[in-house]
Specification:
70% of the residues lie in helices and 0% in strands. It is mainly α. The protein has one domain: NusB-like (N-utilizing Substance Protein B Homolog, Chain A, Orthogonal Bundle), CATH 1.10.940. Helix 1 crosses helix 4 and helix 3 crosses helix 4. The protein is globular.
Length: 145
């Protein structure tokens, strides 16, 4: 059952942060992580298709995603805490691969998730990195701001 409304995507993003974090901690396959989330409260009323597609793509291409934002960091990628790393991987994936979602929406969504899941000031860090990255990944869209 897919719910592709704005709220369905918000719920999917929230579950994605948890799923990518879990994968980073355990190294489980995408199929295993999806199986653990299937039918749980985390995906209730979520856009499951968005969740599944995004999770598979992030796990498959995390090295390429990291390479996009690594030059914008003040430390090495692997020195980020796991929540920040999950947020940046997901935000970068959306900026690069979900062109139908406005860049400001992507940034706002992951800043809000950083406020929920991240350390006290991590939302400012996530905002700064994704904002700079949006200039590279969405140059035509950001040129009009």
């Amino acid at each position: 059952m897919s719910n592709n409304s704005i709220w369905g995507r918000k719920r999917a993003r929230r579950a994605l942060v948890q799923a990518v974090y879990q994968w980073q901690m355990t190294g489980a396959s995408a199929t295993e992580v999806i199986g653990e989330f299937a039918g749980t409260e985390a995906l209730k009323k979520a856009d499951v298709e968005f969740f599944t597609e995004s999770l598979r793509r992030v796990l498959r291409s995390h090295t390429e995603l990291d390479a996009h934002f690594a030059p914008l960091l003040d430390r090495k990628v692997m020195e980020l805490n796991k929540v920040e790393l999950a947020l940046l991987r997901l935000g970068t994936d959306e900026l690069a691969n979900r062109i139908e979602v406005p860049f400001k929406v992507v940034i706002d969504e992951y800043v809000e998730l950083a406020k929920t899941f991240g350390a006290e000031e991590s939302h400012k860090y996530i905002n700064g990195v994704l904002d700079k990255l949006s200039n590279t990944l969405r140059p035509l869209e950001t040129a009009t701001r």
